[in-house]
Amino acid sequence: MLNVHMIKHFLVVFFILIAGPIDARESAPQKIDKIVILGDSLTEGYGVAKSDAFPALLEKKMREDSYPNLKIVNSGIGGSTSASALSRLKWVLKSKPQLVILALGGNDGLRGTDLKTTEKNLDQAIQYAQEKGVRVILAGMQIPPNYGKEYTENFKKIFPRLAKKYKVKLIPFLLKGVGGEADLNLPDGIHPNEEGHQVIADNLYKFLKENL
Prior knowledge:
By secondary structure, the protein is α/β, with parallel strands linked by helices. It has helices spanning 4-19, 22-26, 41-44, 54-64, 85-92, 106-111, 115-131, 149-166, 194-211; strands at residues 34-39, 71-76, 99-103, 135-139, 169-171. α8 (149-166) links the parallel β4 and β5.
């Protein structure tokens, strides 16, 4: 007859076999089927059709590649600053995305908002997302030197500093190749036109392919 110790040994082996290696399960890559881009008028696509804004263009490129079911949610609201980051993040997380691209802060810089305030707002949003188990990619912002070189340089440093603190991936500059290029922007010189949004989508596509 089986004694108690033999039965316990049998049960332990049985559960290990059906459960599989714990470490292997924990290290498995997370499936990405929904990405929210939380931003302002740049994300929203001010001045262009929503279908021509970079979130829609990026979704199309990703679907045509190896993510046929991926949904990219355009959560851009014109005029938004980092002050809205946490409250808006709490709302969009109800839709259960696996990844949030945080693309706020540009309006803070254009308005001359206190740099510590901007950093604190973004910090709180990143921390909250991570506490909820949602991956974050931070989009870096840069601004013209309207408030002097020191403010401009210190504003730019906010984003890599937060990325390092929370160990999140950083898009160095959301408007890379677009900012300051007259032919890629609307007459206001701030918001991308259709061609500009295509450049942003191409850049983000390459970034996501390397980092997802």
